[in-house]
Each structure stands twice: as C-alpha cells, then as structure tokens.
Design goal:
Bound molecules: cytidine-5'-monophosphate
Strand content: 15-25%
CATH class: Alpha Beta
Distance between the termini: 19 Å
Shape: globular
Number of strands: 8
Number of domains: 1
CATH architecture: 3-Layer(aba) Sandwich
Structural class: alpha/beta
CATH superfamily: P-loop containing nucleotide triphosphate hydrolases
Strand order of the largest sheet: 2-6-1-7-8
Length: 229
C-alpha cells in the first residue's frame, strides 16, 4: 500500500492558512482538506434545519450524516455543495465563520467529523488546514506548520480580502470578531487551538504570501527528505 504523507497547517483565523495550504497542495500535487469548511457546513446545515447552535446532540447527529461535496464550479473555481445545493458563498461569510466557531466548540461535533477528515488522506499526500490538524486529527503527520500573524495584521488581511470580494467590512468590527474567535478557539476544552510541540512556528506578520509559501515548501522538503531518507 502506498504511504500517504501529510502536512498539517494550523493557526488562528486570518493567519493565511487557506491561501498557503492551497498553494502548498498544488505545488506538491497533494489533496487538500479545508477542515474549517466542514465546521462551517455543519453550522449552515444546523441553521437550515432550525437547530439551535447550542443543541449539541442534534448537531452531532447532523455532522455524522452531513451530505457534502467539494469540487469545482463551471469556471474552475472551488465549490462546495450541501444536500446537493451549492453553498460556496454562503459558508464564507463572517457570520458563517462565527457560527462555525460555536459548533466547533462542541466535542460531539468534533468527534463526528474526525473520521471524515482522516478520509481525505489519499496517496500521494494531503495538506490539512485547520486548528487541530497536527494535534488531534493527524498527530503522526510528517510535516507540521503553525502559522501566526499579529491580530492587527490578520484583521487587515481579512478586511482587504472582503473588499476585494466587494463585501462591505468595517476594520474595527473585524478586529473585534477576530479577537472573539481567537478567544473562543483557544480556550475551548475540546481540541483548543494550540501549536503541536513538533510543529514549525512561522510568524507571517510583514511577510508576503510568496515568501510564506516558499518557506513552508522549504520546511516540507526538509522534513520529507528526513522521513524518506
Ligand atoms: O478556518 P476557518 O475560518 O474556516 O474555520 C472556521 C471555524 O471553525 C474556526 O474559527 C474554528 O472555530 C473552527 N475550526 C476548528 N477546527 C478546525 C477548523 C476550524 O475548530 N480544524
């Protein structure tokens, strides 16, 4: 059986994980797991079904039988379907991110998504983007990266991203939301956001996207050559 290599990229909201993970997966020719999208989808499915975001039992059951598909739209862009309906834009709003962070605090939801996340690991490899990829979901991963950036810079990046998408955003409100989400993600009892002890920490404050990608790929090559050789 061919061995599946895994690179985990964890970090707080706005640390650039999404962009970096996508670029790394494409450079390595590996699959990509956007685990945040799974929590966003559980929250959206919960809202659609009229389930309160505190109702752990119902959300756990929902997470277990979530009917989702990741693929591309007619223009070749990334797309996501929930119960056969395209929800790509709907899961990317700030509201969806906050809802995701609430359902992600429920241990029963996290447990329900564990095996589903592991099934993304297919040969030759997987880049897994999230909060607990290196600590809980893929503790045996060959390469672990933890990306950070100052809260101010993360708010600025998110603001720029939203403006580019034509979404009105207020920087002060975004900073507050990011701080709230950081607080909830880092202090929850179930799989809090912490760097794995064997992760490479990379503070991307002031770094260009290209130089972060370059550094992450350098780390990957270095670690992979060690595990192979
Ligand atoms: O990464 P993204 O912003 O899409 O994640 C949305 C929320 O989902 C995060 O704020 C976090 O609470 C939760 N999440 C998580 N564990 C993951 C990925 C995301 O708890 N592995």
């Amino acid at each position: 059986m061919q061995k599946v290599q895994v690179m985990t990229i964890d970090g707080p909201s706005g640390s650039g994980k999404g962009t970096i993970s996508r670029a790394a997966a494409s450079a390595l020719g590996w699959a990509l797991l956007d685990s945040g999208a799974l929590y966003r989808l559980v929250a959206l499915a919960g809202r659609k079904a009229g389930i309160a975001l505190e109702d752990a039992q119902s959300l756990g059951r929902l997470a277990q039988r979530l009917d989702i598909r990741f693929g591309s739209d007619s223009a070749g862009g990334e797309a996501v379907w929930l119960d056969g309906i395209e929800v790509t834009g709907r899961i990317r709003t700030e509201q969806a991110g906050n809802d995701a962070s609430r359902v992600a605090a429920l241990p029963i939801v996290r447990a329900a998504l564990l095996e589903r996340q592991r099934r993304f690991a297919v040969p030759p490899g997987l880049v897994a983007d999230g909060r607990d990829m290196g600590t809980v979901v893929f503790p045996e991963a060959e390469v672990k990266v933890f990306l950070t950036a100052s809260a101010a810079e993360r708010a600025l990046r998110r603001h720029k991203q939203l403006k580019e998408k034509g979404v009105a955003a207020n920087l002060a409100a975004l900073s507050l939301e990011i701080a709230e989400r950081d607080q909830r993600d880092s202090t929850r009892a179930a799989s809090p956001l912490v760097a794995s002890v064997d992760a490479i920490l990379l503070d991307t404050t002031g770094m260009s996207v290209d130089s972060v990608i370059e550094r992450v790929l350098e780390v990957a090559r270095e670690r992979l050559s060690r595990t192979v050789g």
